[in-house]
Amino acid sequence: MSDATPFVLILYYSRSGATSDMARQIAAGVESVAGIKARLRTVPPVSTTCEAVDPEIPEEGAVYAELEDLRQCSALALGSPTRFGNMAAPLKHFLDTTSSLWMNGALIDKPACAFTSSSSLHGGQESTLLTMLVPLLHHGMVYAGIPYSETKLIDTQTGGTPYGASHVAGPRSDRPVDEHERALCVAQGRRLARLALALNQMST
Ligand SMILES: Cc1cc2nc3c(=O)[nH]c(=O)nc-3n(C[C@H](O)[C@H](O)[C@H](O)COP(=O)(O)O)c2cc1C
């Protein structure tokens, strides 16, 4: 595919790997749609001591996101572990650097979704997803959840919500993404890719 191929930016933070597993499933959903690809990007951890610096390129996994990734994307999937019912600070820290994009309206009318992983089933997945939506609305993005036509939303005994894909990683954060959770990640990626292509067409 050429460099001009539209892409869905999958921007996430993950410390123990659960959210990055979900990101890869969402990417599979995006890439099941012809004419669009997935770009996986992460953000560095943040520290209360400003002396702490990370290498420019992470030792493993996706590379760090730049504002340019956001400006150029056709859609955004934003992923974070649930932390006290909210998104993790490193991701919020990155979003707090996006005011130049906000001032230029660079993200207006682009579709977006959110995904999260938590230790426990009732540990705040929904509040995390709903609060992740707030900065996206400030940017003028079009939020896409998961419709109940995805019947695994009804059957799941673990993660998966109409507000976005989710995963229950368990108390030791080692429970793999299960069949229902994976199917909903893929469905969310596919839906976002299709919306991106449709909205791209509307704006041309
Ligand atoms: C500071 C902190 C706060 C957390 N808060 C919650 C929480 O509110 N609810 C919950 O179920 N899990 C909570 N967790 C657990 C993580 O959400 C869970 O381990 C998640 O799967 C980690 O994702 P990752 O593997 O992508 O880092 C918290 C973990 C940390 C480190």
TrEMBL record:
The protein's required cofactors: FMN
TM annotation in the entry: none
Source taxon at top rank: Bacteria
Record Pfam families: FMN_red
Keyword field: Flavoprotein, FMN
Gene Ontology cellular component annotations, sorted alphabetically: membrane
Molecular function, one GO term: NAD(P)H dehydrogenase (quinone) activity
Flavodoxin-like domain: residues covered: 8-192
GTP-binding among keywords: no
InterPro entries xrefs: Flavodoxin/NO_synth, Flavodoxin_CS, Flavoprotein-like_sf, Flavoprotein_WrbA-like, FMN_Rdtase-like_dom
NCBIfam families per the UniProt record, alphabetical: flav_wrbA (TIGR01755), PRK03767.1 (NF002999)
Family per record: Belongs to the WrbA family.
Protein's recorded name: NAD(P)H-quinone oxidoreductase
